[in-house]
Amino acid sequence: MDSRSSANGLAATSDKTPATANASVRLIVARQYAKSLEEQHSNPDRVFYDGEDLQGLDPMLVALSTVDKENPRHWTKAKKWRVTVVLGAYAFFAPFASQGLAYNHNGELLNSVRLTSLLGTIFAPSLESVMEDLGETSPVRGALQIGIFLIAFALAPIFLAPLTERYGRRVVITCGNIIFIVFCLGGGFARSTGQLAVCRFFSGVGGSSSLSAYGGVLADLWGLKDRPRASAAVGGTLLLGPVLGPVCGGWISELVSWRWTCWVPAIAATVLEVIASFTYSESHVPTLLRQKRRRLMSKAPEASYYTVLEFVSDGTKNSKPVTKTLETIGRPLAYLFLDPAAALLAIYYAFVFGVLYLVIVTFQGVFGGLYGHSPGIVGIDFLSEGIGALIGMALSTWLLELVYKRQTARSQDSYKSETR
């Protein structure tokens, strides 16, 4: 439908009742919106279309203003990088809290075979002291304190990521960080291994919220050309977290109580939350549209403002809120088991992170056991892995940009995201 036919359609509604006229205008807007979506289908950069250029058809249509830079894609680079850096800081803390070194109360490295797979965490760089303090003698329960955080960190994003699409990025990240803070603090005050395990599990759930949202946030902010650098910045924090965790955990195990390995991440995350309350902005366009509509409706309750979200169906439009949420959460599981590409990618990442943590375990035995490094020095040994991660991120970013430039030399539409 072209602008002339749209104008004729609007003129034809002038003799109708207000309710009928509004319905007719919305139908015209809906048809034009569907046509615009079809035209954008060939664009490899799938950004949410808010219908700003359709406001001329109906002033009641709420859209994000390009002039006022309300759309995240039109934010200044400074604001985009500010949000990206804060997101990277969020993403850093959970991996940081997930890794560390295991030492006894004498500062000696524990035998990794004796305590199963010692993926030591920063919360317990002195694992034997933890178990002694809590009156626990079972090595299995000791290993549980180590692994339960990582189990939560791995599983929670499957359920949290869909919530960022329904309720927005910021609310999920903020609530997750608060949960992380509360249960990290609780872990430091634990008086039994049961209490500690519960706190570690929920701190892992909360800490994974940024991991659940970071892919969506980067897509909200950055186009295909600039996204590799932003992705490298955030991805680098995910890799550096488990590297720097042992550095801090090693020295904490020498100098202060094991409880401070719970409190230090909580304190740092609290400082970050205060900073983020002033610097981090919502980037999910549908959420921004809902917020803008609510603001306009609060000023003019009698007005019939609406957004293009009325024209977008996710298959849960007529469902109850609880049903919508459950269906949204269940969607990633369906993709995981029914989509071969998603399943293979998940297996690949599981292998990569498995190798990463396996190497971390061998660092403990090699440098602490064979070479006799102190806890603090063994922590510093982990920096070599961080240097390697940074080099890898730099090379992958350069390759992604090179591929993008070559594929888009003739046309933007020639780029294929599968190339990555």
From TrEMBL:
<feature type="transmembrane region" description="Helical">
    <location>
        <begin position="230"/>
        <end position="252"/>
    </location>
</feature>
<feature type="transmembrane region" description="Helical">
    <location>
        <begin position="258"/>
        <end position="280"/>
    </location>
</feature>
<dbReference type="GO" id="GO:0022857">
    <property type="term" value="F:transmembrane transporter activity"/>
</dbReference>
<protein>
    <submittedName>
        <fullName>MFS polyamine transporter</fullName>
    </submittedName>
</protein>
<feature type="transmembrane region" description="Helical">
    <location>
        <begin position="201"/>
        <end position="223"/>
    </location>
</feature>
<dbReference type="InterPro" id="IPR020846">
    <property type="entry name" value="MFS_dom"/>
</dbReference>
<feature type="transmembrane region" description="Helical">
    <location>
        <begin position="143"/>
        <end position="164"/>
    </location>
</feature>
<keyword id="KW-0472">Membrane</keyword>
<dbReference type="InterPro" id="IPR036259">
    <property type="entry name" value="MFS_trans_sf"/>
</dbReference>
<feature type="transmembrane region" description="Helical">
    <location>
        <begin position="83"/>
        <end position="103"/>
    </location>
</feature>
<keyword id="KW-1133">Transmembrane helix</keyword>
<keyword id="KW-0812">Transmembrane</keyword>
<dbReference type="Pfam" id="PF07690">
    <property type="entry name" value="MFS_1"/>
</dbReference>
<feature type="domain" description="Major facilitator superfamily (MFS) profile">
    <location>
        <begin position="84"/>
        <end position="420"/>
    </location>
</feature>
<feature type="transmembrane region" description="Helical">
    <location>
        <begin position="341"/>
        <end position="367"/>
    </location>
</feature>
<dbReference type="GO" id="GO:0005886">
    <property type="term" value="C:plasma membrane"/>
</dbReference>
<dbReference type="InterPro" id="IPR011701">
    <property type="entry name" value="MFS"/>
</dbReference>
<feature type="transmembrane region" description="Helical">
    <location>
        <begin position="387"/>
        <end position="404"/>
    </location>
</feature>
<feature type="transmembrane region" description="Helical">
    <location>
        <begin position="171"/>
        <end position="189"/>
    </location>
</feature>
